[in-house]
Amino acid sequence: MLYYQYFRPSFNKLILILLISSVLLGCSPKLDPVTGEKEVFIPNAYERADKVARENPIISFGGRKSNNNEFEFASSNVLWRATLKSLDFLPLLNADYSGGIIVYDWYSQTNNPKEQIKISVQFLSSELRSDSIKIIAHKKICETIERCSNSALDQNFANSIKESIITSARTLKIEEAKKEKK
């Protein structure tokens, strides 16, 4: 009984004070560890994304800058469009326009399902030149599902794909020039 008279009420007060202080400390704005500035959390995801996009405009590969510091998706990149058009029969695995790479998934023809190819296209420049893109091609041969071997294809195969893309890009560029003249 003596314990309850002296310690219990103050213990409850202590718990209450700790609870209130933790709530107040949790509500205080957090500081950025690098800059030391207050970080403001925006609960709406769309507003957060809009704020990040306004503060950090992304310069895309081959993009054009508009007047209000926003960058448009560069659909005028002829090499990008020509690559997608030339290799449209391949299953697309990953396309990163800002990183300048397209990765296609493994592909096999129906007459030889044990052999598959995989192609990656790296864009080194947005100019219409043969050294603006790099083609990497691999071949996978599977004897069984568990037994497969991978190897890089010869450069002649990669060069034939590159020439096909460059030819398609030239055709697209000529068509665009004709449309602009009209």
Secondary-structure element sequence? HHEEHHEEEEEH
Name the CATH architecture of the largest domain.
Answer: 2-Layer Sandwich
Please tell me what the overall shape is. Answer: elongated
How many angstroms separate the termini?
99 Å
Total helical segments = 5
How many structural domains are formed by the residues?
2
Amount of beta strand: 15-25%
Provide structural commentary.
This protein folds into two domains: 13-55, no CATH class; 78-181, Alpha-D-Glucose-1,6-Bisphosphate, Chain A, domain 4 (2-Layer Sandwich), CATH 3.30.530. A hairpin with a 4-residue loop joins strand 3 and strand 4 (101-104). It is elongated and about 85 Å long. Helix 4 (78-86) packs across helix 5 (155-181). With 182 residues, it is of the alpha+beta class. Helices cover 40% and strands 20% of the residues. It starts with a helix and ends with a helix. The strands form two sheets. It has a five-stranded antiparallel beta sheet with strand order 3-4-5-6-7, with helices on one face. Residues 59-74 have low confidence and may be disordered.
